Amino acid sequence: MARKALSPGAPPTTPWRDREAGDDYGATAFPDWRDTNWVDELKRVEIDGTPINYVDLGSPGLHEPVVLVHGLGGQWQNWLENIPRLAQERRVLALDLPGHGLTPPPADGEISISGYGRCVDAFCEQLGLGKVALVGNSMGGFVSAEVAIQFPERVSRLVLVSAAGISSADALHAPILTIGRLAFAIATNTAARDRALASRPITRHASLALVARHPRLLKPDLAYEGFFKGAGKPGFNDALRACLDYDFRDRIADVKVPTLKDSIIPVRDANEFERLISDSRKVVMKDTGHIPMAERPRAFNDVLVGFLAETGRAEEKEAADGESQAA
Question: N or C: which end of the chain has fewer CB within 10 A?
């Protein structure tokens, strides 16, 4: 079952339209991520000679674990607003892919989408996770879908959040390249990496306008901890090229698990994923950008938790709940 959670390709907006975003935009989810001592939750595991940095919260309980996979230029902190809520019911793990966050580049020096897919599967195997629900944003959605294709026995449910892999395979001017240029700008902007300067609304808008619909409304500490700190890592350029060079459209129909899809990545991409994956549906979040898990975390968490608790086929649920719209 595949479910896509998409924002409708909303272009960057102007600061004076923030008042149209609604009260839930940028509102902190519950439990508050600031109440967790994240340093105590950091762990490392070696995969093929590379020490993988990750966090691990919650307990297995009756549910399969959830593994969260960040996007290009990202880090595990992209999921700060979501981990505590998910950890109330199940074990939740979020990793830094090789060359991102605190994980060094792969020992063999090669970064590819298929390699990232093998890395995520090996990560799950090393930690004895068994079947997992995979949730990936942007490039992380691409990687998560690749895991479901390469290792179908690993994935029970798949959530593609503004996932790459359709437009990014069409041309070098695809949306993923725009995201790449943005991440490069953040990485080279020392002001954006400074906590004090990142608290200024104009800095957040300039740095995140192409991935967040209303970046000035994001909490300063979330913008800094969740996104600015991940910029400028050594794996970025190779990962960007890997996104552009890899085309799995002829294999995406091999995904056989329930799937949900969430966009700087156009909504037409969600439609294509939904067409190609037999047991899937999409959820569109209006007036939301490329990182809905941080922009509207309360609504996103509700959709995600609901999807993970579902049984049966995704398409059967679509008729009941239609499109989810966050005003």
Answer: C
